[in-house]
Structures are given as C-alpha cells and as structure tokens.
C-alpha cells in the first residue's frame, strides 16, 4: 500500500497549461484526510503522486480544481467519493506466492505442526491483513490444501481483509489474468484454478474449494477490528511501513494480541517489528516472527 503524485512542475503555482491546479494547501488537506482515514502519512514530496492518482477523479466529478475536490470529499455528500479517493491513493501491489519463503515456512512449520490437530477438529485460523485483490489469501489457501487436502471440510479458515472495497470485490470474484497466475506452480494451477476464455483473453478462476476456505471482509487496520478468536498466523506485508512510527508500534501490539501462543507473524522485507511488541517476538527466518509462548497479553 502506497500513495500519491503529479505532473506538476510547481507545487504552489499549479501545473502546465490544461492541467488542474494543486496547491500546497490542497495537498495537505488531502494528506490529512488520508492520515485520518487510513493512518497513512504523506510527505510533501508525494504531491506529484497525489496529482496523478486523483486527476481522473476530478474529471469523473466534472470539477475544475483540487480545491473544489477537497470541498467535495470533506462534505457529507462526498462520502462515497472520499472512499474512492482513498482507494485511488493506496497502491495494491501483490502477486501469488510473493516472497515464497513465507509460504515455505507456513507449510513446513506452521501447518506441519497443526495438521494433526486440525484433522481431529481443532480450530486453525490465518489472517491475510491488507489482502489486496486476493492473490495472497488464495496463496495461503493453496498452501493449506497442499498440506491438509481435506481442509475445506475442517474448522480451517483464512480471513482476508482490506481497506479498499474494490479489492474485496476482486477477491470475491476470484478471477485473474494469465500473468498473475504464472506465479502459481503448475501442479497447483491444474488442481485449484480453472482456465476460461474471456472475449479472447485467457483468464483463470479459483476453485470453489479455495473460495470456501477464504472469507473476505472490508477492514481498516487503524480502525476497529471486529474479529473474534485468535490466529495461528498473520500475514501483513509491506503495509505498516507507510504508517508513522507510533501507529506502526500500535499495530504490532494489536497483532501480538491477535495471535495464539506460538503464533507466527509474516511482514514485508522492509519492515521490522518495533515498540513494546518487539520483546514478545522471536525472529524465525527472513521477516518471519514467532510469538513467544506464554507472552500473549
């Protein structure tokens, strides 16, 4: 998840002829709303990115300036557009089996340790936080089925959440292009993905078995978490890096409390657990952490 930019040549005085005016005041207004809604902090050097991401929204609304756009998204009548602004300013970079070492660890350690208990009826839960369009949670589900083929008939579930309702809708649809699916091992493609023709373009649909394992929900990581029960593993990768340090610390602590004893946390390659939660985790591989048994507060 990332944010914002522009083709503006002057931050205060607008841009080249024919383009919209984005002033410093406009930018900081938008940045404040993004911080309030999603916890994402934007520095002034992101102004060009804000411009490029939102110029289409101005055109869609028939507006002439960012000042008018700020007035709209700050009003009660503009709540729907404010959600579209948030979606436009958050980047959803994802792919199947991204950072494969995490899925190897999930398969060889977490699932290997819990498979027998799951077959006897024990609860198994994994959370894909900031799931984007579903490629991460479906990768988790495929990994689960590779170890526990009967998982769909057991008390095994993957929770997939994202702040962007468009991404949740894409995940629920479970349809992906050939480039995306190319990252899925062929043995898994043939078993849990079905190719079909979409007006001359080859696409793939995830199987009903995979869909039955994954529950998609809209959720803001800096808001309330209406979640019951704890997780055996949480994937939250390349998201927390966009928050301020105090917000990062708070989220790590919330993840700590959401894990079972000995639960695992998988994070992005540029991220590190920090703050009070740091003492409760043990490094167990590349950006892979294990919660110390008995440390769950």
Describe the structure.
By secondary structure, the chain is an alpha/beta fold. It has 2 domains: 66 residues, Chemotaxis receptor methyltransferase CheR, N-terminal domain (Chemotaxis Receptor Methyltransferase Cher, domain 1); 192 residues, 3-Layer(aba) Sandwich (Rossmann fold). It is built from 11 helices and 10 strands. A 7-stranded mixed beta sheet has the order 6-2-1-7-8-10-9. α2 packs antiparallel against α4 and α5 crosses α6. The longest helix is centred in the middle third of the chain and has 20 residues. The two termini are 29 Å apart.
Tags for this model:
10 strands; Chemotaxis Receptor Methyltransferase Cher, domain 1; seven-stranded mixed sheet; 2 domains; 11 helices; about 300 residues; disordered N terminus
């Amino acid at each position: 998840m990332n944010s914002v930019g522009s083709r503006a040549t002057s931050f205060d005085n607008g841009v080249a002829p024919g383009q919209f005016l984005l002033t410093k005041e406009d930018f900081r207004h938008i940045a404040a709303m993004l911080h309030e809604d999603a916890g994402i902090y934007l520095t002034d050097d992101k102004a060009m990115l804000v411009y490029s991401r939102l110029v289409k929204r101005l055109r869609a609304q028939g507006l002439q300036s960012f000042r008018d756009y700020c007035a709209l998204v700050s009003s009660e009548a503009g709540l729907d557009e404010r959600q579209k602004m948030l979606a436009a300013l958050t980047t959803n970079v994802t792919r199947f089996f991204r950072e494969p070492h995490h899925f190897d660890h999930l398969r060889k350690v977490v699932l290997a340790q819990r498979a027998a208990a799951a077959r006897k009826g024990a609860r198994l839960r994994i959370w894909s936080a900031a799931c984007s369009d579903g490629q991460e949670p479906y990768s988790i589900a495929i990994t689960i089925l590779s170890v526990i083929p009967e998982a769909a008939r057991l008390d095994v579930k993957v929770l997939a959440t994202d702040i962007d309702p468009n991404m949740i809708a894409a995940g629920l649809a479970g349809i992906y292009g050939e480039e995306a699916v190319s990252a899925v091992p062929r043995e898994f493609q043939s078993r849990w993905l079905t190719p079909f023709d979409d007006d001359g373009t080859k696409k793939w649909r995830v199987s009903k078995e995979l869909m039955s394992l994954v529950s998609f929900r809209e959720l803001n990581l800096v808001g309330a978490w209406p979640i019951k029960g704890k997780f055996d593993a949480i994937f939250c990768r390349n998201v927390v890096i966009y928050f301020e340090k105090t917000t990062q610390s708070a989220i790590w602590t919330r993840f700590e409390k959401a894990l079972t004893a000995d639960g695992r946390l998988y994070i992005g390659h540029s991220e590190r657990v920090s703050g009070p939660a740091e003492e409760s985790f043990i490094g167990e591989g590349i950006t892979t952490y294990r919660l110390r048994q008995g440390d769950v507060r």
